[in-house]
Amino acid sequence: MVDSKRSTDEWQSLDRDHFLHPFTNYKELNAKGSRIINRAEGVYLWDTDGRQYLDGMSGLWCVNVGYGREELAEAAHRQMRELPYYNAFFQTAHPPAIDLAQRLGELAPGDLNQVFFTGSGSEANDTVVRTVRHYWSCLGQTDKKIIISRQNAYHGSTMAGASLGGMQFMHEQGGLPIPDITHIGQPYWFKEGRDEDPGEFGLRMAQELEETINKLGEHRVAAFIAEPIQGAGGVVIPPDTYWPEIKRICSHYQILLVVDEVICGFGRTGKWFGSNTYDLQPDLMPIAKGMSSGYLPIGGVMVSDRIARVLTEEGGEFAHGFTYSGHPVCCAVASANIDIIKRENIVETVASETGPYLQKRWRELGDHPLVGEARGIGFLGALELVADKKTMGTFDKPGETGLNCRENAFNNGLVMRAVGDTMIIAPPLVLGKSGIDELVTKARKSLDDTLAMTST
Ligand code: PXG
Fold it and tell me: Most buried of the four, 33, 284, 408, 448, by CB within 10 Å?
């Protein structure tokens, strides 16, 4: 059992000595010490000094139903006692995985009726690479291997996930991307298209897909992968023209559309999936995070009937899988999580009540002197911090103001994420109107505190 009596100093010292954190500059962290979070309930977190935070990020875009759900703990407990582990490799299966697969098939858009389970979103995207290449190869199109993705996309941190992602700083560490992955522009109007009409910019960015297919040769392009809204890239909401044009291109050419729903799935945009919000029919759909509200690690790739038919009838053995593909306890918790989302009408509430309210209140922050743009959709929001509101000029030291604002938010009892100088929120979907008011008040105070730092 964890010794809960240790002091913050003791935890920080042990953390420094033994725990290599993800996406962390160790030297910087060790100089100051981690914030140790040891408790959560509803939409709130507490640290070992007893400070309370409103979790504006749902952990890491995942705790959709909020913390402290007894029902999920019970589902795990029950499943652990009954069958804590078994695999699905050697022509075996178990009820929790079958049950979850069937539920997912009912929820997912169109004919995405089959799922390959993984332990995370990154593994899901590794599975995407394996699946689309295997699919085309089964059809005799062995040259069709290239996957087109987008700059600044995030698709995970494994070799394939990071390669699909368009984060330059990740590619630089480890000689990525792996072969046959290429990146086109992103529909980030505020950062890359402000001197253009948003609609025209969206169209132009989408048409890069068509140009790239033609340049590489349709016979070599296997798939296009994209998040409905780029999350870790800065909550990049594409102009309205973008997705319809991508749909046109994907249906005109023989390439698969992979929609990465790891963040947008399970209610985040006010529909079950971002694909519902943008009327997309993916051929493959990676999912994770909100699938279990982060209570246990699980992900998967949903595939359409067309893909499933080829895999099952022409594919022979699919040489891919993980020890924890369809882990029974994770599956049982994911099913119980989906039950909660349905029973409490969480998606409908975000769509009709709390989502519109959050968006209205969040946009009010657009009048702040530090904010160049306040945007959002459903339970996602972003603020572009600028040095000069008139010219939208950026800061001399990129990223510093964002980090200051994140720190100020922590000090004001709010967790916000900084992506460079873009502040992000993705709160638990159960945040109510008074919680939204609290979030916006704390965000404004954090902006004020940050402004005071930049003007001194
Ligand atoms: N796809 C998308 C769209 C994601 O956002 C992954 C895949 C990978 O999932 P796993 O479960 O392997 O982490 C993600 C994950 C951030 C941040 O800093 C975002 C993610 C992960 C870690 C940090 O915003 N998204």
Answer: 284
